[in-house]
Amino acid sequence: MSLTIGVDVGGTKVAAGVVDDQGRILEKLRRPTPSTNPELTAGVIAEVTNLLKAKYADVSAVGLGAAGFVDETRSVVLFAANLAWRDEPLKQKVEKLTGLPVVVENDANAMAWGEYRFGAGRGEEHVVCVTLGTGIGGGIIVDGRLYRGRHGIGAELGHVRVVPDGRRCGCGNRGCWEQYASGNALSHEARDLARVEPGRAARMMELSGGTVEITGLAVSQAAHEGDPAALECFDTVADWAGQGLADLTATLDPALFIIGGGLSAVADLFLDRMTKVYTESVTGRGHRGIAEIRIAELGADAGIVGAADLARQQ
Amino acid sequence: MSLTIGVDVGGTKVAAGVVDDQGRILEKLRRPTPSTNPELTAGVIAEVTNLLKAKYADVSAVGLGAAGFVDETRSVVLFAANLAWRDEPLKQKVEKLTGLPVVVENDANAMAWGEYRFGAGRGEEHVVCVTLGTGIGGGIIVDGRLYRGRHGIGAELGHVRVVPDGRRCGCGNRGCWEQYASGNALSHEARDLARVEPGRAARMMELSGGTVEITGLAVSQAAHEGDPAALECFDTVADWAGQGLADLTATLDPALFIIGGGLSAVADLFLDRMTKVYTESVTGRGHRGIAEIRIAELGADAGIVGAADLARQQ
Amino acid sequence: MSLTIGVDVGGTKVAAGVVDDQGRILEKLRRPTPSTNPELTAGVIAEVTNLLKAKYADVSAVGLGAAGFVDETRSVVLFAANLAWRDEPLKQKVEKLTGLPVVVENDANAMAWGEYRFGAGRGEEHVVCVTLGTGIGGGIIVDGRLYRGRHGIGAELGHVRVVPDGRRCGCGNRGCWEQYASGNALSHEARDLARVEPGRAARMMELSGGTVEITGLAVSQAAHEGDPAALECFDTVADWAGQGLADLTATLDPALFIIGGGLSAVADLFLDRMTKVYTESVTGRGHRGIAEIRIAELGADAGIVGAADLARQQ
Amino acid sequence: MSLTIGVDVGGTKVAAGVVDDQGRILEKLRRPTPSTNPELTAGVIAEVTNLLKAKYADVSAVGLGAAGFVDETRSVVLFAANLAWRDEPLKQKVEKLTGLPVVVENDANAMAWGEYRFGAGRGEEHVVCVTLGTGIGGGIIVDGRLYRGRHGIGAELGHVRVVPDGRRCGCGNRGCWEQYASGNALSHEARDLARVEPGRAARMMELSGGTVEITGLAVSQAAHEGDPAALECFDTVADWAGQGLADLTATLDPALFIIGGGLSAVADLFLDRMTKVYTESVTGRGHRGIAEIRIAELGADAGIVGAADLARQQ
Ligand SMILES: [Zn+2]
Ligand SMILES: [Zn+2]
Ligand SMILES: [Zn+2]
Ligand SMILES: [Zn+2]
C-alpha cells in the first residue's frame, strides 16, 4: 500500500499526517510554527516528516500545504502574510532534509483538493471550495483538476473587491470580500455593534471577557443561545457570503460550492440564509442551473489529506 | 483541406463565414436577424450555411456563436436577452435544415476561442478574454481548453457585482460590472455629465445630433479631438475596467487578458490607464506575476473564426 | 390698502403679480426670460413692473425672487446657474427703471416665505420649505423670520451631499441630494430603468414619445395608471426624500416641512412613503417630537406672493 | 455684581462653576456622575450648587448643560444616551433642592453659547459650533440667539447621515457623521488599520498598551511623532470633517465654524487639511462667501460658562 505525508503549515502550527490512498490518516503529529524564522520552519516540517517516515516505511512523497503564494512550479513560497517567507525555496529545503520528493501547494488549494477527492466534493468535476476562516481562502477544481492559474496564485477569492472604498484589508487593498464574509468579518460586525450599542451587545461582550473585543466564538455561542444581536451579525455575514457565491457563479458556473473553514462548524447559523441570498442573486436565475452548496466534511484534516494526495499524484 | 462554417448570431445580424484550419475566412455572408421569431432565426442561419456549403464542398461542420446562455451539451440556447430564444433546440433545428453537425456556443466564448487560436492569444494557455461592447462578455481558456462551467454558462463576467446597490442591469440585478466598464457605461457617463453640465458636454452633444442621448461613438470622436469631458468619461470607464481585471486576477490568475469588443477599436483612449489601474490594484502585487493585457486582433471576425474552429474540434 | 409687486424670475419665464397685504394676487403678468442677456432681463422685469404700477397706484415696493445666489444685502445676484447673471446689481437696475424700492431674494426663499405667511405654513414659527422641482430648493423660517445665513446663501438644501462619490450635480460636486430626490431624479431613475429593462419601462417610454428620454410627467402619468415600474421610480425618490427630511431634522428640528415644487402636484404618489421613511429615520425617534409634513398650498404663485410680502416688510 | 452657576453634566462627571457676567469662572467643583440613578444625579448637581451658593451670596440662577435631548421649555431631559434620564424633570428637581431658578440646556448648545459669548465666537452673529469629542455635538447661533428648534432638539449635527448603509451609530441609525469625523472615528480608523496591517500600526498599538484597541490619545501621540499610519488616520477624519462643514454651509451658510471638543486640542493634526477640504467642497464655491473656521478657546470650561450665561439671560 502506498502512503504519502501531508503537512499543513499555518501561521501558528505545523500539522502533519501519514495518509493512505483512500484519504485515511494513519497518524498525526503537530508542532508550533517558529513563524519568524524560515530556516527553523523548514526544520520543523522536516522533523515531523522524518518522525513519520521512520515509522511508516512505505511513505513515498510529501505534500506541503502552505499559507501563502506558491509559485507555478509548486516549489517556492513567494510570499506569506503570517510567516517570514519571501521567495522561500521550500521544496528544495525539505527534500534535502528528508530525502523525499516534495510538492508545495497553497493551503486552501490543498484543502479544496482533499474535500474534492475524499470529502464533500466526491463525484463532482466543477467545484469551488470557499474556506471561511479568519480570512477567506479558495480552491477551484476544473474538469477534475486543481486550478492553479498561470503563476500558481489562482483562487485568492478573499481578495476580490466587493465594496469600492470599503474596509481595509491586510493585502493592502480596500473592500476585499474577506473583510465582509469571514470569521474576522463576523467579529468586526459584533465589535462595531458593541461600540455603539453596548446594551444590545451585552451577552457577546460578557462571553468575550467583558470587552468590546468580541471574538467569533462569542458571537457563535451567543447566536446559539438566541441572542438577537449575534444573530444579526451572522445574517450580515451570510448576506455577503451568498452574494459572493453568486458573483463566483457568474465567473465560474460551478456544480458545487464547498464551504469550509472555521465558520463551517457553525453552518446552522448562516447556511440557510446564505443559500437563499445566493439563489436570489445569481445572474440569469430562472433560466439556468445553479450550484449546490455543501458544508466541508473533513474539518481541520482537509489540508493534510489534500496535500498528501497531491504528492501522490505528482 | 478541411473547412468549417462559423456563424455569429447577434441580436441584429447573422454573420457566417467559411473558415479553414488556419483560421482564415474564405468567404462571408451576412443577414439581418429576425430576432423576434426563433423559427425564422434558425431558418436564416440554415440559409446562409447552405449557401456557403453549396459553394465549398469540403465543409464538414457548423459552429454557432449565439448571444445567450447555451446549455452544457452545446445544443440548446436556454435564454437570450436580445432574441426570442427560450430553451431553443438550436443544434437540432439547424442540423435538420443543413445536414451538417452543429455545435452551439456562447458568442463571447466563440470570440475568445478565435482569439486564443488565431489571434492575440496564440501561445498562451491561461487566457481571459473580455469583450467590451454594449455590455461585457467573457471567455476563459484554461490549460488550452475553453472553460464552460458545469451548466455551460461560465464567464458571464459582465454580471459580477462591483457596486452594492449600484446601477440597474438588464439581468435584473444592480451594480454589475458591465454597467461601469462597457460601451454603454461610456455613454452613461457622458449622458450623466450632459444632464448636469451641458456646457462641458457641448461637443459630445453636438456629435450626437444635439441631444443629451450621447452615443459611445460621439464620446470616442470627441475624446480623439481632445475634448476634456470625453476624456474624463474614458478615464472613469478605464478605472472600472482595470479594477475588474484585478478582481479576475484574484480568482483566475491568467497569463493574459485579451480586450475585445467595440471599445477595443479605441484602445488608445483607455488602454494605458486601464493597465495602470490594473497593475496598481492586483492583490499581492509586488510578490507575484501578473497578467499581460493585449488588444484583440481579429476584430468582428473573432466570433466566426472561433465558432468554426470549435466545430472542427468537436 | 397697501399693495406690492412680486416678481418670480426663473430661467424660462418672468412672472409678476400685484399682491395685497392678505397675500391675494390682484393681477398677474408673464413674459419669457431673455436669459442670456442680463440687461434685457432687468428690462423685462421693469417692463412688467411698470405696467402693473401704472394700473395700481398704491404699489409701494417690488420684491424679486431670483433663481440664484443673492447677496446678504438682498441687492446683487452673485450667480445663477440658468441665467447670465454674475454679480448682477439687480436691485439698483430695477429701482432705476421703475422708481420703486426693490428687494431681491432667492426664489426658493421667496416661495418659502409665501407659504409661511399665507399658505401651508401659517401659524408655525419653525418651518423648512423644500421645493422638489427639477432640482431641490429650500427656505428656512426661524422664529418667524426668513433665515438667510451670513452671506445670503443659506438653505441651498439640494446641494447637501447624501452619497459619497455619487451622481454628478450641476453645482460641480457629486452626490447632492437633488440628484436623488427631485423631479430630475425621478426621470433619472426611469431612464436608467428603461436602458436596461426596456420591457418594464414600455409604458413610460410610450408616454415619452417612444424614447428612453422619459420625462417626469410620463413617470407620473404611468404611475397614476398603476404602472409598476413608474411606481418603483416614485418609491426610490420617496425614500431619498424622506431620509433627507430626517437629516434636516437632526440639524434644524423644525415644527413643519412644507413640500412644494412640481412634484408636490403628484404628492399622492410619494407623500405616504416619504413620510413613513422620514418617521422611521429621524435620529432619536421615540424620544422626541418630530415635524409635521404638509404639501404647499399656493402652487406656482408662492414665489410671487412671498416676494411681494418680503418687499412690504422691508 | 451678578453671579450665576453653570453645571456641565456628562456621563462620567459633574463639573460646576460660579461665573460672572464677563464669563470668568471664580471657582469650580467636580464630582463623579452617579449615572445609573437619576435621583442621585440630581442630588449631586444640587450638592455642588449649594456648596458654591453658600460661598457666593450673589448667585442668582443655575444653568445646567446636560448630555441629552432637552425639551423646548428647557426643563425636562427627554433622553440621554449615557445617563439614566428618560423624561426627567431636572429643572423642577434641582430648583426644589437649591431654591434657585434653573435653566436646562443641551450640553453642546451650552458650549456653543459659551464660545459665542466669551470665546472664539465673539462678534459674530451666525455661528455653528461643532464639538468633535467621542461623538459630534453641535450648537447653532442665529442672529445672536441660540437656535433650539421646535422641540429643543436642533443641532444634533453628529447624526446627519453621510454614508448610506454606513457604519452603525449609537442612535440606532447607520452612516451618521459622528461615526466618521469624531474622536471615536479616529480610533475606529486606527483599529481597522491595526487589525489588517498590524505592522504599520505598531507604534499606535504600543502606545495603547500593546492591544489593537487603539485609543484616540495614542493616535494623537503617534501622529505628533510623525507616525505615517497615525497621520493617515487623521487625514481620513479631516476629510470627513471638512466635507461635513461644507454640507452644513449648504444648509446654514454661517459666518463662522467653531471647532471644539477633545479633538480641538490636537487641531494642528487636522485643521489645515479639514479647512482645505471644506474650501474645495462647498457648493457654489468661487461665487460666494464661505465661513471662517476657528478653534474653540474656552476648552473644557465652555459648557460651564455657557450654561451660566444662559441662566443669566433667562
Ligand atoms: Zn484583500
Ligand atoms: Zn447584470
Ligand atoms: Zn449639487
Ligand atoms: Zn447617529
Plain-language structure description:
Chains A, B, C, D: It holds the Pfam family ROK. Chains A, B, C, D: Belongs to the ROK (NagC/XylR) family. Chains A, B, C, D: Keywords: ATP-binding, Kinase, Nucleotide-binding, Transferase. Chains A, B, C, D: Its EC number is 2.7.1.2. Four copies of one chain form a homotetramer. Chain A is α/β, with parallel strands linked by helices and 314 residues long. Chain A folds into two domains: 3-114 and 301-313, Nucleotidyltransferase, domain 5 (2-Layer Sandwich); 123-296, 2-Layer Sandwich (Nucleotidyltransferase, domain 5), CATH 3.30.420. In chain A, 37% of the residues lie in helices and 22% in strands. The first copy, chain A, is built from nine helices and 13 strands. Chain A has helices at 38-55, 90-98, 107-118, 183-196, 202-206, 216-224, 228-252, 271-281, 302-313; strands spanning 3-9, 13-20, 25-32, 59-66, 69-70, 77-79, 86-88, 102-106, 127-132, 136-142, 145-147, 256-260, 292-295. In chain A, the strands form three sheets. In chain A, strands 3-2-1-4-8 form a five-stranded mixed sheet. In chain A, helix 6 packs across helix 7 (228-252) and helix 7 (228-252) packs across helix 8. The longest helix of chain A has 25 residues, at 228-252. The first copy, chain A, is globular and about 60 Å long. Chains in contact: A-B, A-D, B-C, C-D. The B-C interface holds B 167-170, 172, 179, 184, 188, 192-193, 195-197, 211-213 and C 167-170, 172, 179, 184, 188, 192-193, 195-197, 211-213.
